[in-house]
């Protein structure tokens, strides 16, 4: 664009147009942290080209307010990875991060409406077929696809992280946000459902859990305001990740468990 064209169009309008079509304009100094799989080009390409189109279709039909759209999925992926890294760091756990990302990414894929999710079996089937197409074996595809259907009562560290991430993000829907969040339903580091790892006291686990809840609430507030701006972004997930990375001081616990 020429200087005269920019002047006539207006700088603010130009920036808005760029953001809506190409994503958030990123400052390189805030885009350097090693966040492992979250920055893997192949994973991001799969997410962008094969999974997000399912949610774009939802956003254009029954989910115009993007309640169960790409923003919800992006945040849940981030929470899932943070919790898996907690398990890896403190429980020395061997978890399948990529299969977990795909699983949380598909957990609302079968929806045909908002409200109570009565389509979990459809999401389970979509995820199973996707994993098989990606070369996952029968047993692993069954294990992870069962997680997104609560009727199966699947339980593993991956399942706890995946289901807890969806639980955390419910704060986007409830009036009052964190004030009305039902903490007893969050599996992650719940004394009744998720045993504390050796090396951490119950109080330390309680503190980490509460910090994660608070930071998730703040991240929801920040990113919910970006949904319209990012609607046509070609780099949607990277944009959401950048919002976290460029504000990492606001989310120290979340960011700490994402870093490699």
Question: How would you sum up this structure, described in words?
Answer:
The model has no long low-confidence stretch (mean pLDDT 92). The radius of gyration is 19 Å and the shape is globular. It has 260 residues and is mainly alpha-helical. Helix 4 packs across helix 8, helix 4 crosses helix 10 (236-245) and helix 6 packs antiparallel against helix 7 (138-147). Helices cover 56% and strands 0% of the residues. The protein has helices spanning 3-9, 11-22, 41-60, 70-91, 97-106, 120-133, 138-147, 157-168, 202-224, 236-245, 252-256.
Secondary-structure map:
Elements: H1 3-9, H2 11-22, H3 41-60, H4 70-91, H5 97-106, H6 120-133, H7 138-147, H8 157-168, H9 202-224, H10 236-245, H11 252-256
Any key phrases for this structure?
11 helices, 56% helix, mainly alpha, single chain, 260 residues
Q: Number of helical segments?
A: 11
Q: Give the helices and strands as they follow along the chain.
A: HHHHHHHHHHH
Helical amount: 55-70%
What Rg do the Cα atoms give? 19 Å
- Distance N to C terminus: 40 Å
Estimate the strand proportion.
under 5%
How would you sum up the major sheet? none
Query: Which shape, going by the Cα principal axes?
Result: globular
Low-confidence stretches: none
Total E-strand runs: 0
Output mean pLDDT.
Answer: 92
Number of domains: 1
- SS-based structural class? mainly alpha
């Amino acid at each position: 664009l020429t200087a005269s064209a920019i002047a006539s169009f207006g700088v603010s309008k130009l920036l808005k147009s760029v953001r809506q079509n190409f994503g958030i304009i990123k400052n390189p100094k805030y885009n350097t942290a090693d966040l492992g799989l979250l920055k893997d080009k192949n994973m991001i390409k799969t997410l962008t080209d094969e999974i997000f189109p399912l949610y774009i279709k939802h956003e254009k039909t029954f989910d115009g307010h993007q309640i169960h759209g790409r923003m919800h999925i992006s945040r849940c992926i981030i929470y899932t990875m943070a919790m898996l890294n907690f398990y890896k760091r403190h429980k020395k756990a061997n978890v399948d991060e990529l299969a977990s990302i795909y699983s949380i990414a598909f957990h609302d894929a079968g929806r045909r409406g908002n409200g109570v999710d009565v389509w979990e079996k459809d999401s389970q089937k979509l995820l199973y077929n996707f994993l098989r197409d990606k070369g996952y074996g029968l047993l692993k595809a069954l294990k992870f696809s069962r997680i997104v259907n609560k009727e199966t009562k699947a339980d593993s560290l991956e399942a706890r992280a995946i289901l807890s991430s969806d639980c955390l993000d419910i704060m986007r829907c409830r009036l009052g946000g964190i004030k009305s969040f039902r903490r007893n339903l969050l599996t992650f580091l719940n004394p009744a459902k998720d045993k504390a790892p050796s090396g951490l006291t119950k109080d330390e686990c309680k503190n980490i859990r509460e910090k994660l809840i608070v930071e998730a609430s703040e991240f929801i507030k920040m990113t919910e305001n970006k949904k319209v701006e990012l609607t046509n972004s070609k780099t949607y997930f990277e944009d959401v990740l950048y919002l976290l990375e460029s504000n990492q001081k606001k989310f120290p616990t979340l960011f700490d468990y994402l870093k490699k």
